[in-house]
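Here is the promised in-class demo. Please do not try to memorize the tokens; focus on the logic of going from shape to residues.
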């Protein structure tokens, strides 16, 4: 339930309203505005009568929210949230962000080469996996801290903020120190203990959709992070698992307008993991821009045939540059810059 008070409501009346709801076992979130104050009530609000609440002379409006998420809800936060990730602003009407880089960090030389190519093409951030969640325990698991430090060196040379996936709580301090945008991967979307821990971080979070999760479940995972105090969350659609075999996953572009309608948070698209095939990455990237995505995260590798992971879905640098160039044309059509 969302309640707003009238302009000029005295502070003592605000506190009185809060105490009244808390006495009924409800959690109250207050957003103080210049003219208005807005309350978000979390808990069993079925026992509340809107008419009785509205009878308070200081109450301006009462809205019952059906959705179980409050902090991410557009009703509670009308303006678009713009997330600052290492100086790159994502969301609202800001420039569409393009994140590029390898699936796995393979060493300092490879990381520097790709970072230079990403920047030259017009990319705004560098992605790279240092800790890799792999289906097989025998597959390459990533370089760990060495990979993170390789990305740090690339950032020092190119100025590109870095994005990498956090797998466990024991690496939080490392990511807090070195990584600009902390990615929570699809397999950890409902790792609630990790989400709670990430909620205490100061770095923004890129939250990927789970392999077979509903949009509401996805938003609720963002709610876990935001409830912990970290409200700088970016959604990332990377395709969901369906019966289709022609692509790695099924890219659900309809989530872009839905997320923007239901929440105030930015959303970016990962066409690489969604399609699993470099041939489809360009078309899905352009479609995502047309649909209103706030950014793209694309896998880039100079030698995909010999990549340590996911080479089949990686673009060579020249193709990555083509996607950005064509994307700028689509962006202008929808009133954005890229």
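The designed amino acids, position by position:
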């Amino acid at each position: 339930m969302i309640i707003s008070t009238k302009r000029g409501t005295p502070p003592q009346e605000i506190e009185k309203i809060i105490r009244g709801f808390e006495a009924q076992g409800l959690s109250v979130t207050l957003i103080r505005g210049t003219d208005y104050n807005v309350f978000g009530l979390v808990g069993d609000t079925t026992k509340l009568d809107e008419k009785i609440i509205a009878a308070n002379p200081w109450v301006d409006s009462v809205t019952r929210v059906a959705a179980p998420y409050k902090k991410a809800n557009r009703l509670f936060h009308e303006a678009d949230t713009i997330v600052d990730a290492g100086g790159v602003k994502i969301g609202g009407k800001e420039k569409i962000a393009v994140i590029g880089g390898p699936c796995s960090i393979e060493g300092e030389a490879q990381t520097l080469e790709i970072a230079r190519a990403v920047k030259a093409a017009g990319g705004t951030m560098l992605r790279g996996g240092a800790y890799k969640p792999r289906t097989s325990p025998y597959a390459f698991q990533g370089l760990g801290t060495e990979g993170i430090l390789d990305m740090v060196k690339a950032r020092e040379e190119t100025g590109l903020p870095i994005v990498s996936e956090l797998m466990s709580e024991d690496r939080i301090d490392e990511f807090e120190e070195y990584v600009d945008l902390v990615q929570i991967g699809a397999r950890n979307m409902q790792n609630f203990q990790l989400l709670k821990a990430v909620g205490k971080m100061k770095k923004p979070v890129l939250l990927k959709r789970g392999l077979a999760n509903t949009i509401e479940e996805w938003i609720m995972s963002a709610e876990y992070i935001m409830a912990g105090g970290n409200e700088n969350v970016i959604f990332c659609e990377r395709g969901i698992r369906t019966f289709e075999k022609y692509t790695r996953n099924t890219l659900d572009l309809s989530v872009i307008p839905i997320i923007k309608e239901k929440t105030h948070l930015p959303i970016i698209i990962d066409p690489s993991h969604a399609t699993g095939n470099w041939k489809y990455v360009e078309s899905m990237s352009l479609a995502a821009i047309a649909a209103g995505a706030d950014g793209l995260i694309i896998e880039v590798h100079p030698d995909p045939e010999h990549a340590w992971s996911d080479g089949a879905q990686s673009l060579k640098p020249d193709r990555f540059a083509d996607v950005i160039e064509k994307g700028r044309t689509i962006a202008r059509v929808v009133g954005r810059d890229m």
